[in-house]
Structure formats: C-alpha cells, structure tokens
Amino acid sequence: MTTTSTAAVEAVLAGLLEQVSGVRGALVASVDGRPVAAILPDHDPGSTAAIVAASLGLGARLADLAGEGRLQEIVVRSGSGYVVIYAVGERGVLVVLTNASANLARLHLEARQACADLSAGLDLARS
Predict the structure, then answer these.
(1) Which of 70, 75, 110, 113 is the most exposed place for a label (fewest CB within 10 A)?
(2) Cα dihedral across residues 50, 27, 63, 125: positive or negative
C-alpha cells in the first residue's frame, strides 16, 4: 500500500472517530490479517488484525446459516462496548471499537459508507 493510500485510509478512520460519539478506535486490515492503517490507542494493530482475520472465517460460516449472501458485518457486544467488523469488498475489513454508550445505528450508517469509500478507492489486495 502506498503512503498516499495509507494516508487516505487513516483519514477515513479519523473521520469515523470524529463523526460517531463513543468510537474509541478503528483499524483497516486485509482479510489475511495484515494491518493497513489503524487508530488504536490501547491495542496492537498486528495482533488485532490477526484476531479479526480468525473471526472472519467463523463469521462467514455463521452468515451461511442466515441464508444466501456474503458476510457483511459482525457485532460483538460486551459490558464495556462493542467490536464491530465490517467487510470492505472482497479483500479488506474495517474494525471499529466503541464504548458502551455508542450509538450503533449511527455507527452502522457511517461505517458502511466508509467501507464503500474504502472499497471503491483502495486496492487492499496489495497491502
């Protein structure tokens, strides 16, 4: 990934943190677990990307249970917040970490648009 495209991804991540109250971190990675860009103050991007890659396989199998169609997102809720994983095209993933007070509907609205922008504008296959 070039410096320009990494900067563009970081700008998208920064936008999510600004636009959605309660978002405390975000990461874009390839589906094979390589981080592309991250704003994760309390977490290592490499290990976070690896955990997400492992989760995608399970999520894809669970999506099969829902019927036809590709995995679009995974939502994990804990007592202190959410981890939401969004598919970015065929080769990428967006992970958003929130606190418990985050507005999930607003997050979905903004993150889904971010995924469309990232998928259209970046070649995550080369990351």
Answers:
(1) 70
(2) negative
Strand partners, 27: 38, 95
CB 88, CB 72: distance < 8 Å:
no
**pLDDT tens-place string over residues 32-71:** 999 999 999 989 999 999 999 889 888 888 888 888 778 8
Distance of CA 103 to the CA centre of its chain: 16
What pTM does this model have? 0.89
Question: Domains of the chain by range and CATH?
Answer: 3-126 (3.30.450.30)
In the chain, the amino acid numbered 91 is R
Residue 17 and residue 97: Cα distance in Å, rounded? Answer: 10
